[in-house]
Design goal:
By secondary structure, the chain is α/β, with parallel strands linked by helices. The chain is built from 17 helices and 27 strands. The longest helix has 21 residues, at 501-521. The protein starts with a strand and ends with a helix.
Length: 522
């Protein structure tokens, strides 16, 4: 059993993302197998934690909390941009872990390195147990909501970049889930969690279309591509640009597809009131045309808490904004100390347009997206791409090849909205797992046929129905986990040659402001 020492909302949301059964509090440490220490223990609690480690339990915490329990640990402060993976099992299918925050490094660290080549994470024995000591406080890292230009490695003549979240939330989560896998394995237990996909699915693929200011002709062409590959896309509509055509679009281009809000004015506002006004206006236009939006994607992929608050006020289920989170499982951002009612459904932030701007040819574009799809399927995680009709019409053979490959590798497709609805139900599921008479016992509050439990054990996995029962690990029909995707060291080299990005982005933002000002003056 996994226990959370305190009540940190960031830790709780991450564990719910993974679909792990866990307890909160300090009353039953003796019943735990792995303890997550999310705050510095009080003087009276120190003995409990040390006793837990002496009994052979696994501990996952940060170096500051650890040094409060074991004073011989002496962390030193360093600003860390990111952690570079190594061959440790903690970095299975994990890329560069973007932090951009103060970290606390231990002399005992032996896994992963910072941008300066200094060891970052300490993994090893602590008393009779095992520990993973992270150099960062999870709440500090995940509370950051800034964005900045980031290079994405591609075999192109120019750098591929986009404005995304300063913190790689997906990689942080994967690092922590791998740490839990490691600690559970050391005490002889499997990693048990709710599967990230519906029963019978090993992956899920989807495609989001932001209409921006595109022509009906390009949108009709995009619909044709969807029909040819046998998918329904998720369309995010610029209602000011396309409002007058929505009735026609509903009966032709958008018929049967997932239709949600992109914007009214194509910009994100810094204040709650203007974001609320814009969302209300866009919602009204779509509803008058016969649509029922419950999701949104902000212009330029931007995000701020005031946008989130406006969405929550209007009862929206989700948003999809890579300036907050990308390449991750759905999550609820913590706002004012509590997980928001608005889900984030992440997409991969690089689209055809960004690759074209980097002078990629068709083969390089296809290679880029195929590598991303392979990585996501190896993680069993959803693979959501996005694009714009003009670039889809410009590179039809590329997008058709990529979509067919995504369907082949993922095995199923979903709209972002359907996946958000399913994820919402997943988040309500509760279960406990324990051991009795040599067998593992699964207890669920109710049977949920739309969910599966995934058990990972010694490079194998097995999915079981989400219902109470018992099972013997030795008698399960196991399947091998997908091969680990090797970390590409060229990703690090690409990060070290990004000095020109700031100048490029200043020019890009200036052009964007000029365009916005020009639209407002009309």
């Amino acid at each position: 059993m996994i226990g959370l020492f305190g009540t940190d909302p960031y830790w709780q949301e991450l564990l719910r993302q993974e679909g792990i059964s866990f307890t909160v509090g300090t009353t039953e440490l003796a019943k735990l197998d792995v303890l997550i220490i999310d705050r510095i223990p009080s003087a009276s609690e120190l003995a409990q934690v040390r006793k837990f480690a002496d009994s052979g339990g696994g501990i996952l915490t940060d170096s500051l909390c650890a040094s409060a329990v074991w004073p011989q640990l002496r962390p030193r402060k360093q600003r860390s941009k990111y952690i570079v993976p190594d061959s440790s099992p903690l970095f299975r299918n994990v890329g560069i872990v973007d932090l951009n925050t103060d970290t606390w490094l231990l002399q005992q660290a032996n896994v992963g390195t910072t941008q300066n080549g200094i060891s970052a994470i300490s993994v090893g024995r602590i008393s009779r147990g095992w520990c993973v000591l992270l150099p960062f406080r999870l709440s500090t890292v995940l509370a950051a909501t800034g964005s900045k230009p980031r290079v994405f490695y591609a075999r192109t003549r120019k750098q591929v970049y986009e404005i995304v979240a300063t913190v790689g939330r997906g990689e942080v989560r994967r690092l922590i889930s791998n740490a839990l896998r490691f600690l559970l394995a050391e005490v002889g237990l499997p990693y048990v969690h709710i599967h990230y996909c519906r029963p019978g699915q090993s992956g899920v693929f989807g495609f989001r279309v932001d209409t921006d200011f595109d022509s009906l002709k390009n949108m009709q062409f995009t619909r044709k591509i969807a029909d040819e590959v046998g998918m329904h896309f998720s369309w995010y509509i610029n209602t000011k640009a396309h409002g007058q055509h929505l009735t026609h679009m509903r009966n032709s281009i958008l018929q049967g597809h997932d239709v949600q809000i992109h914007c009214y004015e194509h910009e994100l506002f810094p204040d709650y009131e203007n974001n609320l006004i814009q969302l209300k206006h866009a919602d009204s236009i779509l509803r008058k045309a016969g649509f029922r939006p419950i999701g949104a994607a902000a212009p330029y992929g931007e995000w701020n808490p005031e946008w989130n608050k406006a969405l929550s006020k209007l009862g929206f289920l989700y948003s999809s904004d890579f300036a907050l989170v990308y390449d991750d499982l759905p999550t609820r951002p913590v706002i004012d100390g509590k997980p928001s009612s608005v889900l984030q459904i992440p997409v991969h932030p690089i689209c055809l347009g960004r690759l074209a701007a980097s002078r990629a040819d068709s083969a390089e574009m296809i290679d880029y997206f195929k590598r991303y799809i392979e990585l996501q399927t190896s993680r069993f995680e959803p693979c959501f791409l996005y694009g714009h009709p003009a670039n889809i019409a410009r590179f039809p053979s590329v997008i058709e090849t990529v979509l067919k490959y995504g369907l082949l590798r993922c095995g199923s497709w979903s709209s972002l909205t359907d996946y958000a609805r399913w994820w919402q139900e997943r988040g309500k599921a509760e279960f406990r797992v324990g051991k009795q008479s040599g067998k593992f016992v699964l207890e669920t509050t109710r049977q949920k046929p739309e969910l599966e439990i995934m058990i990972e054990w010694q490079d194998r996995y097995r999915c079981l129905p989400f219902r109470s029962g018992s099972f013997d690990l030795d008698k399960l029909s196991w399947q091998p986990l997908p091969p680990r995707v090797a970390f590409n060291r060229r990703t690090v080299a690409a990060r070290r040659h990004d000095r020109g990005l700031i100048g490029k982005e200043i020019l890009r933002q200036l052009r964007k402001r000029i365009q916005i000002k020009g639209r407002h003056s009309k």
